[in-house]
Design a protein that fits this description.
The structure is a single chain. The protein has about 500 residues and is mostly helical. The protein has 25 helices and 2 strands. The protein has a two-stranded antiparallel sheet with strand order 1-2.
Length: about 500
């Protein structure tokens, strides 16, 4: 992604660059008003294509060729191939982890350990630890995140609240982990080194996550749930439907260990999926046979049961209606809607880049501010705009990173100011946009619409305000002159 080319078009005016964005936002707003929660079932995808068509008309008017636009769309789609494969494997993993009893076991033991009052704050901490260890907010959501949403649902806590806590913790860990791709990309774009970037970013990120924990603790203290809810009926239903035992945790522990050891995510997810299938046959033979539609477990019915869990919708019936809704998975098939959304978003983002609109919008934002605070505000606005228009967090880091690097030097600011701002506004806000790859992924994996969890992802939308607060009051804004002085003393 660091080699991403920013397309420029001197003939394109700012209003022409913004026209597809305004039309897209208007159409999406009306579409959500009409369809509500069902907007992501397909209609939003078509709206993104319509936005791409408007951008293409602007491009034709400014003499951008059809071939140039299609080539950029193809490049955009190619850049998401890894994410699409990960989505498919996450769907497969969720299916085998359901029928093997891994996710039910997480929920079973979690119900006995986690107190509803501090559940949301604990979810932030758990996800932060896992995400720091793995360097991946996506992996965190796909493993412990799914289980935590299930536990929260069983405790009577809104799925949107739990998903917001999961995402807050996952993105804190993703930002602060040296294993994270965005944490490596931001300093590379700004011209600083990884660990200088992480240390400097901690100045805004740690206070933000502390505020987030305080908010979730206050929410937990005021939740309308019993202090010690009676979960005995839920536990009995899980126990009756599955063979629950601690050995099931070997699979998620191994997957997390592989990712910590820098194994390719696709390999880790594949092994986790296959081991989930093996554990399903060993520990849940009756469940596998039922999924296959057979009375007894044979080699053939085991194959059919595991393959169904990997590929299509599966569910495990219990004596509790709430658990029946919880113990279902869509397999790879369940991820197709999210993949469809990502592909359509890449069409819009690709055409916007090809006609030079992304460069034009960022350039206008850069020229609009002369002060140091204005430069930070312009960077934040550019990152937010690109998360909405380009639908990809990497572009929201790469494009502003390339365009603002010289401006920060001209203002005498150390490059870590830029790298921190890119992460505080580009990385974390991507998950708040329903048609962004990150927003689409998290909604698909956690089973919670983006608009439902966005209001509770406190860490994610407080981060840009924190970085702007530091800039406004000149708190820990490192100057290039200071950096040179320290070098001479050393």
């Amino acid at each position: 992604m660091s080699e991403e080319t920013i397309k420029k078009n001197k003939e394109l005016s700012l209003w022409e660059a913004l026209l597809p964005v305004f039309i897209l936002i208007g159409l999406l707003a009306y579409n959500v008003f009409v369809y509500g929660d069902n907007a992501l079932a397909g209609s939003n995808q078509f709206i993104l294509l319509m936005g791409g068509a408007v951008a293409a008309i602007v491009g034709f008017y400014n003499k951008v060729s059809y071939e140039a636009m299609i080539d950029e769309v193809a490049n955009n789609i190619k850049s998401t191939s890894g994410a699409i494969l990960i989505l498919l494997f996450v769907g497969a993993l969720a299916g085998t982890w359901l029928i093997s009893g891994i996710i039910p076991a997480m929920i079973y033991y979690g119900l006995q350990i986690l107190n509803p009052t501090f559940f949301l704050a604990a979810s932030v901490i758990i996800c932060a630890i896992i995400s720091i260890a793995t360097g991946s907010s996506w992996t965190t959501s796909a493993t412990v995140g799914i289980a935590l949403v299930g536990i929260g649902d069983a405790l009577g806590i809104s799925a949107g609240m739990t998903a917001g806590a999961v995402i807050s913790g996952a993105y804190f860990g993703d930002k602060m982990s040296p294993l994270s791709d965005t944490t490596n990309l931001a300093p590379a774009m700004a011209g600083t080194d990884l660990f200088t970037h992480i240390r400097y970013m901690a100045l805004t990120t740690v206070p933000t996550v502390i505020i987030t924990l305080i908010i979730f603790t206050v929410i937990g203290l005021n939740l309308d749930t019993a202090a010690n809810p009676d979960t005995s009926a839920l536990l009995a239903s899980i126990d009756q439907a599955f063979n629950i035992n601690p050995w099931l945790f070997l699979v998620p522990v191994l997957v997390i260990f592989m990712i910590v050891r820098k194994a390719p995510p696709l390999l880790a997810l594949l092994i986790g999926t296959l081991l989930g299938g093996i554990f399903a046959v060993i520990f849940q033979p009756e469940v596998v046979a039922t999924i296959a539609g057979a009375e007894t477990l044979t080699f053939e019915s085991a194959y059919v049961g595991v393959m169904n869990a990997i590929t299509v919708d599966t569910s495990v019936a219990t004596t509790n209606e709430k658990l029946n809704d919880l113990f279902s998975a869509g397999g790879m098939y369940g991820m197709l809607g999210t993949i469809w959304l990502i592909l359509c978003a890449m069409v819009f983002g690709g055409i916007m880049d090809a006609i030079g609109a992304l460069s034009r919008i960022s350039g206008a934002l850069l020229k609009a501010f002369d002060s140091v605070f204005g430069l930070f505000a312009s960077t934040v606005a550019s990152c937010l705009a690109l998360n909405v228009t380009a639908s990809d967090q990497y572009l929201a880091i790469v494009v502003p990173g390339k365009m603002y690097a010289q401006a920060y030097k001209d203002k005498g600011l150390a490059p870590e100011n830029l790298s921190r701002t890119l992460e505080d506004s580009g990385t974390v806000t991507s998950v708040l946009v329903p048609w962004n790859t990150c927003g689409a992924y998290q909604a698909g994996v956690l089973g919670v619409d983006t608009l439902h969890y966005a209001g509770y992802a406190f860490f994610n939308y407080l981060s840009p305000f924190m970085t702007l607060t530091y800039a406004a009051f000149n708190i820990k804004i490192k100057q290039l002159a200071e950096k040179k002085t320290h070098s001479k003393v050393a």
